[in-house]
Structure formats: structure tokens, C-alpha cells
From TrEMBL:
UniProt-listed SUPFAM superfamilies: Multidrug resistance efflux transporter EmrE
Gene Ontology cellular-component annotations: membrane
Record-annotated Sugar phosphate transporter domain positions: 21-294
Entry's localization field: Membrane
Region named Disordered: 309-329
Keyword Cytoplasm found: no
Coiled-coil stretches noted in the UniProt entry, renumbered to this chain: none
Protein's name according to its UniProt entry: UDP-xylose transporter 3-like
Keywords annotated in UniProt: Membrane, Transmembrane, Transmembrane helix
Membrane topology (UniProt): Multi-pass membrane protein
Transmembrane segments: 12-32, 38-62, 74-93, 127-145, 151-173, 224-245, 277-296
């Protein structure tokens, strides 16, 4: 099997793992928060990261991957930035309506496109831009309901979008620049992300929910779902870095919106959430956008292989589709959850 075909199969596997693990953790966290009353989102995310780090440490001890240290300032800054972006996304949900929060998540793709165009000189074709617009329109129809604006919430949303975009772009560029794998980057940055949220989490959750995570009554059911959530999060965190590394931040966001559509469908089937024609039409439009995005990216990749490849990296375009991607490298929006049961855990990407 050729190296190109092997890479494509690896990319498809990473995308599949990301979708399955993310949808699984959403269902698990939704049950934990909406039905068992454990609404401490930021603290739970810090536990996810701690378990992920411990799992990777065991994998390192078993020599399943090689530890490759690189610039410590980059690792620390990247880890703290990821932690801050998760906290800001939770604050954004806390100070905004669910509808405005969904708009915040939709804004991540155009913001990422803008930042990569301005600072990385990437070029996005009109076809790709149009496909992304269709995707965002569909997800918006399916998920956005009420739009209540306030100054503080808007500022927090803006900060959340910018930090999330930068963190996801860094996930890709760091792996390329330092030639580290997704596992190596996750292993080194995980402790700083975990500590950022572990320290701030209880205070942030107390501020948002008026409840104390340390005085919560931990029943056997709650503990079982927390353990299950943490175990699934290992796969979520690993697949997040793997997908962004193999594709691009924009493609990861497109995949994230696919997960949103799947979560809506599974929520209706398994948890009997409200689901109307608006949701169905939005999901259909979003799927059209996703298929179109993948088609045009594949088409542009094929043109690149035919044309002379003497183009510098500065002219790199957005040609990393959902099933065929350029090699490279948490984004943790999929596992940073909403603040209260009445929110129905709407907040699932980090994506």
C-alpha cells in the first residue's frame, strides 16, 4: 500500500475516532448534567485532562510512543492558552443565551479563515468559502434559537472565539514546526491545560452555578458517569490533536459541526429531546455544505498533484477535506460542557 493511501486511511480513522468519541462523551455528559445534576463543567474538563495525561504517561512507560521535548515556553503558553479558551467558552455560555452561544461557536470558522489568511498567507477558494457558508447556515438554522445580547457576554464571546482559533491554529503549526506527533504535543501540553482548569475550575463553576463542586453529593451513579466521561475524554483529546494535525483547524471545525448534527439526532432518539422540521432542514443544509466542502477540497488537492509543485508554503490553500488531507497536526470544545441542566448541555464542538 502506498504512503499516500496509508495516510488517507489514517486520516479517515482519525476522523471516525473523533466523531464516535465526541458524540459518546456528549451523550454521557448530557446524562451527567441534565439528569444527575452534576453541572460543574470546567472542573469536569480539568479531570478529563488529568486522566488523559495519566493515560499518556502509562503509554509512554509502555513505550507506545517516544517523548520528544521541545521549546518549553511554547508548550507552557500553548497549554495555558487552551485552558483559558475553555474557561472563556464556559463563561460565554454563562453570560449569554444558548442561541447566542451557538452563534459564538459558528463564528470560529470565519475567524479561523481570517487569521490564517492574514498571518499564515493561506488562500481559501471561492468554492470552499461558499461551502463553509452553506454549512454555517445549516448549523445556524438547526441550533440557533433565541439571540439575547449583552455587552459583557459579547466581549467574553469575542475573547472565546479568538483564543479558541489561535489555540487550534497553534495545534497544527506547532506539530509542523517542531515535527512532533499529536501524541507528543498532547502529552507535553496536557499538564498545563489541566492545571489551568483545575485551579480555576471550582471558582468558575461556583460563580456560574452558585453551587460548590466539593459539597456536591456524589452518588454511585454520578461517580460512574464521571469515570466513564473521563475515560472517553482520553479518546476525544487524542483524536482532536490527531485530526487537526492531519487536516487543518478549519476542517476540524467542519467536523465539529457534523458532530453537532449527530448529537441533535442522537438526543432525539436516545433522550427524546425536542426535534422539529427546523432542526431537520438545518441538518440537511449543513450536510450539503460538508459534502461540498470535502468535494472541493479533494478537487483542489487533485489539481495540486497534477500541476507543478514549486509553490512555497506561503501560498498554501485550504485543501484539507474530511477524507483527504495534507500532513501536518483543542481544542477541547467537544468536552467543555454547559453550566446547568436547563441548558440541556447545548455546548458540544474544542471543537
Amino acid at each position: 500500500m502506498s504512503e499516500s493511501k496509508s495516510f488517507q486511511l489514517g486520516t479517515i480513522g482519525a476522523l471516525g475516532l473523533s466523531v464516535v468519541s465526541s458524540v459518546s462523551i456528549v451523550i454521557c455528559n448530557k446524562a451527567l448534567m441534565s439528569y444527575l445534576g452534576f453541572i460543574f463543567a470546567t472542573t469536569l474538563t480539568s479531570w478529563h485532562l488529568l486522566v488523559t495525561f495519566c493515560s499518556l504517561h502509562v503509554a509512554l512507560w509502555m513505550k507506545l510512543f517516544e517523548h520528544k521535548p521541545f521549546d518549553p515556553r511554547t508548550v507552557i503558553g500553548f497549554g495555558i492558552l487552551n485552558g483559558i479558551s475553555i474557561g472563556l467558552l464556559n463563561l460565554s455560555l454563562g453570560f449569554n443565551s444558548v442561541g447566542f452561544y451557538q452563534m459564538t461557536k459558528l463564528a470560529i470558522i470565519p475567524c479561523t479563515v481570517l487569521l490564517e489568511t492574514l498571518y499564515l498567507s493561506k488562500r481559501f477558494s471561492r468554492s470552499v468559502q461558499f461551502s463553509l457558508a452553506i454549512l454555517l447556515l445549516g448549523v445556524g438554522i438547526a441550533t440557533v434559537t433565541d439571540l439575547q445580547l449583552n455587552i459583557l457576554g459579547s466581549v467574553l464571546s469575542l475573547l472565546a472565539v479568538v483564543t479558541t482559533c489561535i489555540a487550534q491554529i497553534m495545534t497544527n503549526t506547532i506539530q509542523k514546526k517542531y515535527k512532533v506527533s499529536s501524541t507528543q504535543l498532547l502529552y507535553q501540553s496536557c499538564p498545563y491545560q489541566a492545571m489551568t482548569l483545575f485551579i480555576s475550575g471550582p471558582f468558575l463553576d461556583k460563580f456560574l452555578t452558585n453551587q460548590n463542586v466539593f459539597t456536591f453529593k456524589y452518588t454511585p451513579d454520578v461517580l460512574a458517569f464521571i469515570v466513564l466521561s473521563c475515560l472517553i475524554s482520553v479518546s476525544v483529546n487524542f483524536s482532536t490533536f490527531l485530526v487537526i494535525g492531519r487536516t487543518s483547524p478549519v476542517t476540524y471545525q467542519v467536523l465539529g459541526h457534523l458532530k453537532t448534527c449527530l448529537v441533535l439526532a442522537f438526543g432525539y432518539v436516545l433522550l427524546h429531546d425536542p426535534f422539529g422540521w427546523r432542526n431537520i432542514s438545518g441538518i440537511v443544509i449543513a450536510l450539503v455544505g460538508m459534502v461540498s466542502y470535502s468535494y472541493y477540497c479533494n478537487h483542489e488537492n487533485q489539481k495540486k498533484t497534477i500541476e507543478p509543485t514549486a509553490t512555497p508554503e506561503a501560498e498554501e490553500g485550504e485543501s484539507e477535506p474530511l477524507t483527504h488531507a495534507e500532513n501536518g497536526a483543542a481544542a477541547f470544545n467537544d468536552i467543555a460542557v454547559s453550566r446547568a441542566p436547563e441548558r440541556k448541555s447545548e455546548r458540544f464542538m474544542h471543537a
